[in-house]
Amino acid sequence: MDYTGCVAMIRNLCLEGKLRAALWLRNKMIQKGVIPDVLTHNYLVNGLCKAGDLEKADNLVREMLEIGPSPNCATFNTFIKGYCLNNNVDKALYLFSTMANSGIGPNKVTYNILIHALCKKGLLKDARKLLEKILDDDCGKETSDIITSTIFMDGCLKKGDMVQALVHWDEMLQRGTQIDVVAYNVLIHGFCLIQDMNSAYRYFCEMFKRGLLPDIFTYNTLISGFCKIGNLDEACYIHGVMSKMGAAPDLISYKMIIQGLCIHGDVIRANQFLVCMLENLMVPEPLIWNVVIDGHGRHGDLSNALSIRDQMVSFGIPPNVFTYNALIHAQIKGGNIVDAHSIKKEMLLNGIYPDVVTYNLLIGAACNFGRIHFALRLYDEMLRRGYEPDIITYTELIRGFCIRGHVMEAEELLAKLQRSGLSIDHAPFQILIQKYCRTRVPGRAYDLTKLG
Fold first, then answer.
1. Which of 81, 317, 353, 370 is 20 to 30 A from 346, alpha carbon to alpha carbon?
2. Minimal CA–CA distance to 418: which of 429, 407, 403?
3. How many domains does the chain divide into?
């Protein structure tokens, strides 16, 4: 195989993750007195860094310095990024400092990698120093590096330093930096993180004044922010604006708006958005179907919950354990414990096993109806299937025993809960305290207040 064929094979092996074979072929070439070019070596360094084998990457770079080819800026950038991804920023900075000794000047990519890593570790002062260095180098240009500036600003915002981010934003404007959509997205996302939706919306409007059209990320960020603070009307408005402005809502847009509406109890509007998705030939993921099913169930609308499930199946989306749990919850809310248990049987017939949530729902319902023996059978079945009871399981059973007047059994279960190692809240103690107060056993109630 000739030189061109060998280096092409080394590069392909690196892309396929077959690094051992790539290194073997490289060594064979060197033994024959042929040294692969720097680009091929960069493929090898990149592959080793991605695999997390930084020691081998280090040895390879050392060999390059000794026998050639000389590393270039891309080699160091790849190596520096490898250490940053491995959370070893100190080593990355050391490599950065050695570049000059090797006669290689860092480029903007080098700075971007390091600034991003420093910001991620919360070392904003160090990141700021690097940023100032690159901006000073750019002083002769009409515009400075928007990418580097945006990376720094994003780091500030993710660490909650809104003040420094805004100071840098103002500096960008003063320097005449051509602010782009990505920079606005970063700033808007930062305001959404601290739930300052007024400022987020103000900068959104400012984009239009600057002749910039928001992209799908801008709209989705605003929708998410408004949903999180419960301003669903504004979220729906932004969703409606998108299409008119040429940014058609995607699966994420619909997912956020439907989830937000269901969480805040507006299932009717959520259902309308679900229909809109289907009309736009978008097949929702299981999570979206499940959220709407659960929303109808929580409002006691069992008929619509079952209808959405059937629609889900008709679109080729098989129900999962979350779907069935939502339906079981809906049946229980409607007082249909027998039908709820039938859904559990349907799950098993379809090859889907109940989880702890399923059992907790059914155990809680059985206790509500005073059917403690049925609840205990479910509890035993849960253990046989290898599920560990959680705090909710124990609390529901303690409540069930108290409803039936079996206080000793409830006490035994509380003792078992205390031995289980689970994190216990006040609820199981409160149930027993109330029971003892009603049955006029204040002494034991007082003892439990000290425990709970």
1. 370
2. 429
3. 2
The alpha carbon of residue 438 and the mean position of all alpha carbons in its chain are separated, in whole angstroms, by: 47
* Burial label, 421 (beta-carbon count in 10 A; 0-12, 13-18, 19+): exposed
* Domain enclosing residue 378, as ranges: 354-452
Q: Which tokens hold the place of 86?
A: 């491995």
Angle at 428 between CA 427 and CA 434, to 5 degrees: 85
CATH code of residue 391: 1.25.40.10
Predicted confidence at residue 310, as pLDDT, reads 94
Nearest to 222, CA basis, from 248, 243, 242: 242
pLDDT-based confidence at 299, cuts 50/70/90? confident
Residue 424: phi, psi to the nearest 5?
A: -105, 130
5 located within any domain: yes
44 found inside a domain: yes
Q: Is the pTM of this model over 0.85?
A: no
Q: Determine if the peptide bond prior to 389 is cis (ω within 30°).
A: no
